[in-house]
Amino acid sequence: MTAKRRPSATRLLAAISFVGTVGAMPAAAANSHGACAAAVASSATLHWSESAQVVSPSRAWAIDVDARAGLRSDDNETPVTLVRCADGARRPLFVLDRAAKAHWGPRGDALLVVNAPGAGHERLALFDAVGLFADETAVGADRLDRIVRDAVRSRLGPTWTIAFYTPSLVSWRDERLTLSVALRAVRGANGPLRPFCYGVTVDLATLRVQQVAPHAQSATRDSLARCGPP
Fold first, then answer.
1. Partners of 137 in the beta sheet?
2. C-alpha to C-alpha distance for 103 and 110, rounded to whole angstroms
């Protein structure tokens, strides 16, 4: 099999195995257009090479992964689209070129994506489905990633440089988002990489970090795996 070109860190993700499936009831039963015919799932793992649809718990929204377009692309760039189930209207979300985790919020109208273009180089993106149809743009979706990275950098201190960064979702309750952030950082120009792990809590209503709490630190090579709950 031909090796795949290393993806850009700014691109996002596509195919899919379901996690936390709520039910197998077709979304078409909940909307007259049948635009959202897949099973409802609160979370899913996306891969670039398979087409799939993930319907939100509210059955009002879905994301579509079109792997056929990705397979036709020289760079395996697979588009991911937001679908409004009531009328089948669509808005582009991002381009997937490796893998990602997608998590619908508790109300089913917000979507958290953990983009994984490369191990240790994940990026967060937060999408507001209602806002996307009002503004017709996903500009600002990476703001969550910026504030989480800045908070972790501040907690580490100015002498450390982050080399590898792996956030993952722990919980999402109302407007309170809790993440685990595993990372490796280096101090100075020639210092060894050292693993760190933090629990980060974000108030989504204000998009402000409320807490950055250290987990137990580990010196093992697999420290970039998911930290687990704080």
1. none
2. 8
Tell me if residue 21 falls in helix, strand or coil: strand
Short-list 149, 169, 227, CA closest to 195: 227
Of the residues 96, 112, 135, the one at which a domain ends: 135
- Helix (H/G/I), strand (E/B), else coil: 174: coil
Residue 62 to residue 22: CA distance in whole angstroms? 14
Instruction: Indicate whether 20 and 115 sit together in one domain.
Output: yes
Among 135, 158, 189, residue at a domain's last position = 135
Rg (CA), the chain: 18
Per the model's pLDDT, the better-predicted residue between 135 and 113 turns out to be 113
pTM of the predicted model over 0.90: no
The boundaries of the domain holding residue 178 are: 143-224
